[in-house]
Structure formats: structure tokens, C-alpha cells
Write a structure and sequence with these properties.
Elements: H1 6-12, E1 20-32, E2 35-41, E3 57-64, E4 67-74, E5 83-89, H2 95-103, E6 109-113, H3 133-141, E7 146-152, H4 156-169, E8 174-181, H5 190-199, E9 204-210, H6 226-236, E10 244-249, H7 251-263, E11 271-275, E12 300-307, E13 310-317, H8 324-331, E14 348-353, E15 356-358, H9 366-370, E16 373-375, E17 379-381, E18 385-389
Parallel strand pairs: 7-8, 7-10, 8-9, 10-11, 12-18
Antiparallel strand pairs: 1-2, 1-6, 2-5, 3-4, 3-6, 12-13, 14-16, 14-18, 15-17
Helix pairs in contact: 3-4
Length: 392
């Protein structure tokens, strides 16, 4: 997932400290056999903290079988005061997603982190506390924008929020969606997608691609591979006239579309993407919770970090190859993180001094990296001392 950029910050206020608050579950609505929509009540005194722009996400925290588990989920609805809705699809072997689908009921409470992320439209974005700005933004930015999205499975979640908001904001903007699933029964938000088609027949179009069901159009049958993608871009979608592209789904699909758009010379700043996981077993995620073995005779590295105005130091054996996040968590348990895999961006911090290497980055924009920001779950010091600032 991506992190806050100036566009997202303008929509949802300045960058906020990532903190958890206890929210009550208002409703758990079944979407498919393996997915649910969860609605949280946001009390009035927390509405500023849970202000958000369409396309942003929240991290959820729960204790399951005696262990703390965190997962990030995109908000699936237009901004609405007093409520946050996310969709959770059960993953094979997924502890959190299985628990939500099988055991979570209205009345439960969960720890929910305030919204963040920059997977938002530059065409028309707003926060839930300022809905009157939506139409004004659409006119000021571009009132006849054309947006195209590729989604697969639960990748539809943030796309729904963006599509609804943009189509409502502008009477002339258009939104075209390519949505991949294995079968029609696994299509999340099928009814809501149908409602958008009925409400905006000339401005919203959806192309369902089913990998395990035969469709009349062979282009919409089977997995989206290089050949099928090329045909979609050539004959169905208008690549040259699209103002923004949104890609959300598994690593392989997102990377395939990104590469093809780059080959067709689509400017990188027009392409927004979000991953829920990297989907790459050859590149493991972060080390949150990993124990570090002391190395009395070896070289020691010092990591200094500032959080909430307080500065702490922790030493780590160079041989341990410990991430900044893992080291910081050994000193303070409230260091912000969610996925610990380089995807969500919650653990972002700015390097003040020292040398480092960042293994993965599926969250930070290029301008953030150039400004010195890193994902601490993926960053390891390569100098004797590394200083980072979570407050920057």
C-alpha cells in the first residue's frame, strides 16, 4: 500500500501520528462465501482522527489465540461521518481474515488505526468531514477526467470508494473498471457495481474477467496475461486519453499492468497502485517480533529514533541484519507498523543521518524516497549509526 503524499494530506488533513483506537463493530455484512464487509462506529470525538479520503486504508489489531495480529484493509465506501467500512476476504491459512469471516459479530470491538495511504485520485478527493469540497475539487482540478482501474479479488475495495466519490463529484468524469475473479460467485460488491452501472450508464463501465468460467467474449475469459492485457488496452480501453490509472490486486497482475503501461509510454505519475501483499516468497517480509541474538565479540550498530518528540537509542549486532523497525520495537512497543512487509507504509520514517539499505518498497513514492523517507520494516543500517525520525 502507499503512504501519505501532499495530495492525500490535503484531502485528509496533515499527516497524523499512527495510533489505534477502540471502535465498535456496527455490522458484518456477507459479500461472498469468503468475504464480508465490516462497519465500525466512529464516535463524534474521534471523527477528526478518522477523517479519510476515498482509497485510503486502516490497520486493524486484535488478539487471536493469545497472539496480537495486525492487518491492513482499504476503506470501501465514500467518506461518511460516524462510520468506517472495510471489506475482508478470507485468505487460505489467513489467521485474521478467517477469524473476521467466521467469528466477528456486531458488538465486538477492535483496535483500528487512523486512516492513511495515498491511493487516492488527484481528480477529485475529499475527506469525510468536508463533503462540500468534493464538487469544488472536481471543478478546480479537472471536471471531465477519464479514470481506468484494474482490480482483482479484494483489490476492488479501495476502487469502489474512489469510483463512487469521483462519479458523484463530477457530472462528466468517466470511470472504467477491469475486474478479475475466478468466478461470478466470487465477485465482491456485485450489487454495488450494478448500482453504479444503473446510476451512471454513460460514465461507468465494468469488464468482468473470469478465469474459471466461460464468457461469451473470449477476451473476458481466463487469466489476464500479457496477450490479453494488450488486447484490452488496444481494443477496449483508451490508453492515450486516460488521466489516471488505478491498479490494485496481487503483485503479478499489478506489475504486469505497470510494465505494459510503461512500455506504452504512459507517464508514471498517472499510474497509482496498491498491493495487499507482495506475493513474492523469494522476498520475505519484515522482521517484526524477531529475536536478536547478542554477538559480544562482533561489531555493534546504534539505531537512534525519534517518535512523538522522544528520542531513543538501541544497539543491534551488525551480524543480526536487524531492521530499524524490529530494533525500535525492542525499545518501544508503540512504534507504528501494520504489515511489516513493505506494503502499507505505516512504519515510514525519515533518515536524518547514516547509511542504510532498503530491501523492498511498494509504498513510498519516488519523491518521498528522494527526500530521505524509508520503510523502517525494510531498512537496515550499513553504517555504525543510523538516525531516523518517525515524526518528520
Amino acid at each position: 500500500m502507499t503512504v501519505d503524499t501532499p495530495a492525500a494530506e490535503a484531502a485528509a488533513g496533515t499527516r497524523r501520528r499512527a495510533t489505534f483506537n477502540t471502535l465498535r463493530v456496527r455490522e458484518v455484512r456477507r459479500l461472498t462465501a469468503d468475504s464480508v464487509e465490516v462497519s465500525f462506529e466512529v464516535p463524534e470525538h474521534l471523527q477528526e482522527d478518522f477523517d479519510y479520503a476515498p482509497g485510503q486504508y486502516v490497520a486493524l489489531r486484535a488478539e487471536i489465540d493469545g497472539k496480537e495480529v495486525r492487518r491492513s484493509y482499504s476503506i470501501c465506501t465514500e467518506p461518511e461521518p460516524g462510520e468506517i467500512r472495510v471489506a475482508v476476504k478470507r485468505d487460505i491459512g489467513g489467521i485474521f481474515s478467517t477469524w473476521v469471516n467466521e467469528q466477528l459479530t456486531p458488538g465486538h470491538t477492535l483496535e483500528v488505526m487512523n486512516p492513511s495511504g495515498a491511493f487516492v485520485s488527484k481528480t477529485a478527493i475529499t475527506s469525510m468531514n468536508h463533503p462540500e469540497e468534493l464538487a469544488e475539487d472536481a471543478v478546480a482540478r479537472r471536471h471531465d477526467a477519464r479514470l481506468v482501474a484494474f482490480a482483482a479479488g479484494s483489490g476492488i475495495t479501495p476502487i469502489m470508494a474512489i469510483a463512487r466519490a469521483v462519479l458523484r463529484a463530477s457530472p462528466s468524469s468517466t470511470f472504467e473498471l477491469v475486474y478479475a475473479n475466478r468466478s461470478a460467485s466470487e465477485v465482491m460488491f456485485a450489487e454495488e457495481i450494478g448500482d453504479l452501472k444503473d446510476r451512471y450508464p454513460s460514465r461507468f463501465a465494468v469488464h468482468h474477467v473470469l478465469s474459471r468460467e466461460q464468457r461469451l467474449n473470449p477476451l473476458l475469459t481466463g487469466r489476464i496475461d500479457h496477450e490479453k492485457l494488450g488486447a484490452l488496452l488496444e481494443h477496449v480501453l483508451q490508453t492515450g486519453t486516460t488521466d489516471e490509472w488505478f491498479l490494485c490486486g496481487p503483485f503479478e497482475l499489478v506489475q504486469l499492468v505497470r510494465d505494459e503501461l510503461e512500455a506504452r509510454e504512459v507517464p508514471a505519475d498517472k499510474v497509482r497502485f496498491e498491493l495487499f501483499t507482495t506475493g513474492r516468497p523469494d522476498r520475505p517480509g519484515g522482521q517484526q517480533g524477531r529475536r536478536v541474538q547478542a554477538d559480544p565479540g562482533g561489531k555493534t550498530v546504534e539505531i537512534e529514533f525519534t517518535l512523538d518528540g522522544l528520542t531513543g537509542q538501541v544497539e543491534t549486532p551488525a551480524s543480526a541484519q536487524e531492521t530499524v523497525l524490529n530494533a525500535a520495537l525492542r525499545s518501544r512497543s508503540d512504534v507504528p507498523f501494520a504489515c511489516a512487509g513493505g506494503v502499507c507504509g505505516t512504519c515510514r520514517a525519515k533518515v536524518v543521518s547514516g547509511d542504510f539499505e532498503m530491501q523492498e518498497n511498494y509504498a513510498l513514492e519516488s519523491d518521498e524516497v528522494e527526500a530521505g523517507y524509508v520503510l523502517t520494516c525494510q531498512t537496515r543500517p550499513t553504517s555504525e549509526k543510523l538516525v531516523v525520525n518517525y515524526d518528520a
